[in-house]
Structure prediction request, 595 residues.
Amino acid sequence: AGDSVRFAPLRCICQVLSYARRHLHESGLLRNKAATSRPPRDKESNEMSIRDTQAWKALEQQLEAGMRDVHLKTLFQQPARFKTFSLDAAGIQLDLSKQRWTPEVRENLIALAREADVPNAIQRLLSGERVNLTEDRPALHTALRLPRDAKLEVEGVEVVSEVHATLDKMETLVDKLLDGQWRGATGKPITDVVNLGVGGSDLGPLMVTSALSDFEVKNAHEVSTHFASTMDGSQLADFLSWLNPETTLFILSSKSFGTIDTLSNASTALDWLAKRLGGDEELIKRFHFVGVSTKPEKMTEWGIAPANQLLFWDWVGGRYSLWSAIGLPIAIRVGMDNFRRLLAGAHAMDEHFRTAELEENLPVQLALVGIWNVNFLDIRSHAVLPYDGRLKHLPGYFQQLEMESNGKSVTNDEQQVDYSTCPVIWGEIGPNGQHAFYQLLHQGTQPVACDFLAPINRYNNVEDEHFREDLMAQHRLGLANCFAQSRVLMLGDDAVKSDGTPPSYKRYRGNQPSSTMLFDSLDPATLGALIALYEHKVFVQGTIWDIDSFDQWGVELGKKIATETEEIIATQQGLDSLDDSSRGLIESIWRGQQG
Ligand code: F6P
Prediction:
C-alpha cells in the first residue's frame, strides 16, 4: 500500500478542517445557547413522569408480586405459551414466549402504551408532524417507501412525487453504471464504486448490501461496491492500494455534507485520483464523484457536478436514511428492482404498524417487552444474534439505530428522566458468538436480553444439487444451534435430563429472556420489513420514555472538541488550555512523531 497511497497534502487537510469548522458554525454548534434553544412543544407541557401512570404502578406491583424472580421454566408450565406470544406480519414471525412475562404483564404494558399516547404518536409520525421536537421537524423515513401512487402532503408540499423523482434519477444513474456506460476520465467503464460516508451514511448501505449478497446483479459488466468510513483513513488506504483509479467512482454520502470523517476521506480520494490520472480536478470530479446529501450548495461548492448530485430531505434522519438516495450503493449492488422491493417490504411493515391493534402490533410488542426488561426486570444489556452470516453488520447497524435514537436522559419537557432508557445494544453472528461471549450469557453475572434472528429457508437457489444439500445441512445446523441456545438460555440445566446434580461450575441457571424472529428467506422485501420493525420499535420506546428519538445532540460536543484538539496538535499552540491527561497524550504524539 505504501507506494500507491500517501496522505493527502497538508493543504487539502487544512481545507477540509476549515470546511468542517465552517460546518460547525453553520449547524449552530458554535453559536450561543439562545440560538440553539428548542422550539416550543406543539402539545401542552406535561411534567408528569411515565412512572406516575397507573399502568406503570400496576407493573411494579406485578414485579413485587413474584414476577421479579419467576423463572422462565415456571412460566413455561402455562399451556400454549408459543401460541399466546407469537405474532406474524409482513413476512416476519416473532416469538416472544421466551420473555419473562405473562399475559397479565402484557396487558399492563399495553395499558402503559395507551397512557403514553402511543396510538396517537404513531399517527403523528406517519402523517409528517414535527415529532423531532429539538430540531423542529418531521421524521418521515416512512415517506421514502410510500408507493408511487400514494399521496402525502407535509406542510404544503407533496412529498411522494419528490421521493419518486429522486428514485427515478437514482435508477438512471444505476442503469448507466451497470450497463458499463459510466466511464472514468480516461474513457474506461467504472468497475468499482467506493462509498465514502459514516454513521447513517455508511452503516445502512453496508449492512443491506451484505445481507442481500445473494441478490447481486449478474451482468456482463460487473460493478463492485466498497465502503470506507473511518476518518483515520485506514479502510480507504487499503482499497486505494489495489483499486484502479481509471475505473473507480466515489460516492460522497453525507446528509450534512460537513462531516470531517467523510470529507477527509474524499480529499484523500481526490488527491489519489489527481496524482494518478493527471488532468484537471474539475474533470476528475465530474467523472469520478457522485454526491448524496440534503445540501446541494455544499456539494456544488466541493465540486460535485449537479448531474451527479442526488438529494434527500432534512426530514430524513441520518440513521433512517438507507431508504433515500443514501441507499445508492445498495441499488448498485442488487439493482433498482430489488431496492424497490426493499422499500416495499418496509412499507408493508409501516402499514402493519399504522393499522394493527396494539395487541397484534409487532413493533409495539417488541418495544413493550423491551420496556419490561429495561425498566422493570432491570436488564440493560441487549444482544442481537443473527444466525445467518449475511447479517454480520446487523448488530452494528442496530447499535446506531437504537443507541443514537434512544440513548437520552432528558424528557421532551427537559426534565431529567427518573428511569432507564436505551439498553446497551451489542451482538455478533450467533454461531461465532457461541465461541466467544455465550459463556457469559450462560454462566456470567449479567442479565442479557437476546434477539435471535434466522431465515427458515436458505440455499434454495444453489444450482449444483450436491453442493446445495451440503449447504442446506449447514443451514439446518445453524437453526438447530439457534433454537438450542435460546432453549438453554431459557431453561438452564433443565434443558437436559441428568442423573444427579452437576458441580456448580457446570451449572446453567437459565432465565435469560430472548425473542426469536423467523422469516421465510432473507430477501429484499423481508429485510425491509425487518429493519422497519426495529425502527418503529425504537420510536415506540422513545414515546414511552418521553424522549426525542430523532435528534443526536450527544455526538456534537465530541466533534467540536476534536476540531479544536486537531488544531492544537497541528499548530502546537494552546496546549495549556487542556487537562493534564490530554496534555500528556498530545506531548507523546509530538515526541513519537519526531522520532
Ligand atoms: O455523528 C453522528 C451523525 O450525525 C449521525 O447521526 C449521522 O448518521 C452521521 O453523523 C453522518 O452524518 P452525515 O450523513 O451528515 O455525514
In short: The pocket of 6-O-phosphono-beta-D-fructofuranose is lined by residues 198-201, 254-256, 259, 262, 318-319, 404, 552, 555 (CB under 6 Å).
